[in-house]
Write a structure and sequence with these properties.
By secondary structure, the chain is mainly α. Helices cover 97% and strands 0% of the residues.
Amino acid sequence: MTNLLSRIKNSILADLHQVLDEKEEKNPVATLNQFLREAEQEKEKVKRTLERQYRLKDEITKEYLEAKELAEKRLEQAKIAEKANEPELYKFAMREYEHYQARKERMEETRQTIIRQIDEMERKYAEMNHKMKDMYLKRMELMGRENVIKANYQMNKVFKEGMEKSFNRFDEIERYIDRIEQRINQAYYESTFDEKINRLKRKLEQENAENE
């Protein structure tokens, strides 16, 4: 059953790829436009992710600064409690200091990780922008070439059809002249028939008169 489903899946994918290949062959610029739209969507996803990382970095930085401030405050309070010989206050202040200090270090580590991620994403996003620009320029070049091909095709088509029309028109005129010539010849023959007969009649009468 699994093999059958795999064969069906492969057959469907093969048909789909064939359709896409045929579509690309017939209209490569349209296919390129589709690819560019998909690339724009992917670029927009990266942009949104990058914006979320910026916000996250700001939030982590805020938490880091807050933990740093509280750690420094508790450390200063611990020093005061120690000088005042207040062991309970000193212990509480040190526990709080260690807690905020650990949070500060954790936030700083997270912040540095996010900064590295942002740097990498910014680099990739810049590369995507450059590639998109190159692809748009390439599309313009292809569209220019496609327009030339279409223009040449249309001109050749018009020229070919014009030549065919000219030849057809020439043949039509030639046939029309033949028909006119036939009608004129027929009319001429009919118009001179009586005269020819009369001449023959006079000739015969003259010959008969001479024989008498």
